[in-house]
Here is the input.
Amino acid sequence: MKLLPPRSPIKGSQEMLLIPCPYCGNRPEIEFAYGGEAHVVRAAAPRTVDDTAWTEFLYFRKNPRGDHAERWRHAYGCGRFFNVKRNTYTDQIEASYRIGETLP
Amino acid sequence: MTQPYRLSTGGRIDRSRTLTFSFDGKHYTGHPGDTLASALLANGVHLVGRSFKYHRPRGILTAGGEEPNALVGVGRDDAHFTPNLRATQVELYDGLTSESQNRSPSLMRDYGAVNDVFWRFFPAGFYYKTFMWPRKAWTKFFEPRIREMAGLGRSPKTADAARYAQRFAHCDVLVVGAGPAGLAAALAAAKTGARVILCDEQSEPGGSLLAEPEAMIDGLAAAEWLKAALVQLAAYPQVKILPRTIAFGYFPHNMIGLAQSLTDHDGEWDDSKPRGRLWQVRAKQVVIAAGAIERPLVFPDNDRPGIMLAEAARIYLERYGVLPGRRALVFTANDVAYRTALALHRAGCAIAGIVDLRPDAGGPLVTAAQKAGLPVFPASTIAGTDGRLRVTGATIKPIAGGSGQHVSCDVLLMSGGFTPSVHLFSQSRGKLVFDSTLDAFLPGAPAEACSVAGSAAGLQSLKEVLDSGAAAGGGAASYQVANAPLAQGGFIGAVPYHGDPGSVRAFLDYQNDVTAKDVVLALREGMRSVEHVKRFTTNGMATDQGKLSNMNALGIMAPVLNKPVPAIGTTTFRMPYTPVPFGYFGGYARGELFEPERRTAIHSWAAAQGAVFEDVSLWKRARYFPRGTEDMRQAVARECRAVRNGVGIFDASTLGKIEVVGPDAAEFLNRMYINAWTKLQPGKLRYGILLREDGFVIDDGVIGRISDTRFHVTTTTGGAARVLTMMEDYLQTEFPELDVWLTSTTEQYAVIAVQGPMAREVVQPLVEGADISAEAMPHMSMVECRIAGVPARLFRVSFTGELGFEINVPADYGRAVWEDLMESGRPYGITPYGTETMHVLRAEKGYIIVGQETDGTVTPDDVGYAGMIGKAKPDFVGKRALARAAFAAQTNRKQLVGLLTDDPAHVLEEGAHIVADPAQPKPMTMLGHVTSSYWSDALGRSIALALLRDGRARTGEQLYVPLENGNARVTVVSSVFYDPEGVRLNG
Ligand SMILES: [Zn+2]
Here is the structure.
């Protein structure tokens, strides 16, 4: 799903990650909006995809404990979406790469 | 007052100045350098509070931030009042006003102490179990009683008069704790040129060195070495030392939260200065030198006032020049308590005995005590204490058994050894490793760029502590140390006391009144993990987070479960390390800055007219414009009449606006909205519906085609940011091949709706460069022109069902154009109307409001908009989801309908449910719910919109809306109540 929760910048004081935007460099999390799991591919011709696959695309996500490829948007910066590889347990970010690039 | 327990010399207090303060209305004196706790002890005051659950009299137990008992409220008035402060951390100032907590009417006579008499009825799990009693017992008896009695402190009723500052900072090395390890780390790091922040919770740096009269470091007395170290650090311009600063939280990526107290220590007399500052420090490296916390021993009645930690008593003596009592009994499993006994002995305090749990205690301190003639009881325990508001004596028994011996004392000083402060390290998600020789959890592999030095890492000798600090700071210094004591030995669990375990209370968690027996009971009830025991007994759940109790709880659990301590595990440490007042987190975000208000260009005009405003997301919108004594219903009826019969004017500036530009703009909108856009001609408007990928309506709005490559998209007021983000998402990630630019123009345009049969007459005279006659400019068209001399995008559009225009002008001209329109409309009785009238008028026409008629589970067909779907389009967001068999299989989806009540005066409640048979036993079959409901002036009766199962097929059916005061019968009708043919639109 492609929904981002609305974010108010004033709610950011508890957000602590340091996120490397591939366009701007390291910025505090307060400047970003989370965009859910990365590499969830929307089929180029949705008509050709069966119901099961489309339901999977709509609703099913990995939610792992550990390495996770996820989307972020530099909402209060350059505005670009990009992908991040983050460990959901340690919160350590191992990679940050542009949309269209593959997970390093 | 005389401060009878103050020594004439020694300590770091300034005896040349005397400060006056009050505690529970009684006046005392102290000196600069005192804490409230040390000043109270100097005056012989030990009783400072009542315990949480049993209201037991409690005294000062510690000399630091781990204090569980001595919680006080401080402040000269309600606006400067802070509850639950630890008296051990409150610095004394002249005029300080403080009060004890959790007692009524007074500390000496507390009615709540009845709980102590009936303590058997308040066992562990009491709170959980009472939930299972009859509801009445809970609401009528337990809850009010618990609320009244179990409060910790009182909340001030007035707004906090203080200001709070916030700061972001970066550094190479953040050192937490300015004791010997932290100072050594800061010195080593500073020498490498690193930017260093050194913070410490106390009023001055030094940690344990502030009460260290004997040890020598590099040939200097500890206090002299401390002075020299601070001089050395001050010479580095890139080193910042923050006293009175708690590192309360360790967040990902080496972000540390610091709470720096700025004016508390001298009484917050000047409100123009910030009281405190919240730091968010991003450090390349963190050195945790947080020290260690002395553990109490768990023995029967170990909570009477006058019972203290041994090292705390020594700190009161050495740092504050205070004798905690005249006759001390020491109970220990650690060598350093002997040092306390020796120091007190030298200062003139009688030592009633040193009771040592260990059979074979040896070493220089033990020898020194024996040499000084202090009575030592090895392999012994304390089986109980007596004294009501102050300890008066205790019974010593050999562990091996046999008869006890009663000794009198006025203080009982205990030491169970030291627990390293691993809180911050654990918060950083570093792994803890159990050290069975120390009976302590020590920092293991770190998860962040951090290291732990000193006694926080379990080190016991001052030399090791200093050297570990130097190493953590990137140095290799090897400190020379002499005459330093070794803090070896310790005990966890409940000490043996040879009594009936059912008849005694040995306190484990002082703040939450948890006893050793409670933990055993929890295990008997089947709790196994330490997290279960914690929740069942509430051990460690008070504001001190079990700083004193966690290890002893594990020590009690281990033999009962027959498991080693690490197999039971330790609980999670959470921020804040010690409580931080709310104001620090609020910072500047209070009052008008708490949530910024958004105001339109016309806001000031509406306010001057006496409009009543409502909040729509962050916007302030005029809801109605009352005249004279009108109430809302009267004002709205008048405004509705004006629009239907003449002309009204409405500020629609809050509508979201997005400029969609580029060669592929139409194709982009084709893929985003359900409607077809390719064939829409420049100069035309279309009502667009936006779905989420799951097929449900998420937004709507009128979209104008300005040119082949440019669209003016409007969104709902609340959806503007969401829609732009969604568009950016698809454009950047799914359709990057499209050449399109998106720009938010919400705040660039003021939007003025002029609606009603006379609308054209009002607008026409102000228009330059366009023909707005009915023929030249039909419904759903637009033109770029000048209005009142201002460049404008003029839309012929209606959300009222009447002939209407929406005028988009640069926001800075919004109010001027509005006033010109008012002037132009004067002959026609132009009437400003607000959002309430807008809602009524659109409901009369059955126009939906996204978020009111839709709730995230509504498809275009559900609201009757299936016909708008561009059938020929291969794809748009949500199309594939709508084609799923799951949707097709649903034959009874909720659909938009109108409802008319039998009683035309009855305006239904929005959100009310609809049923077929009000006599059906509960749970009844819900057929749908009322989404909008108003009094319609045009129809002279109430109207309602509803989402109803299979609603369109139910037209004409009579259903029921069960309400609190009876069932309302309704008839299902079309959702368009007024002018169903739509002739008025085309006027
Ligand atoms: Zn960026």
Observations:
- Helices of chain A lie at 51-59.
- The two ends of chain A are 24 Å apart (CA to CA).
- Chain A touches chain B at residues 1-4, 6, 8, 10, 13, 16-18, 28, 33, 35, 42, 45-47, 49, 51, 54-55, 58-59, 71, 73, 75, 79-81, 89-93, 99-100 (CB under 8 Å).
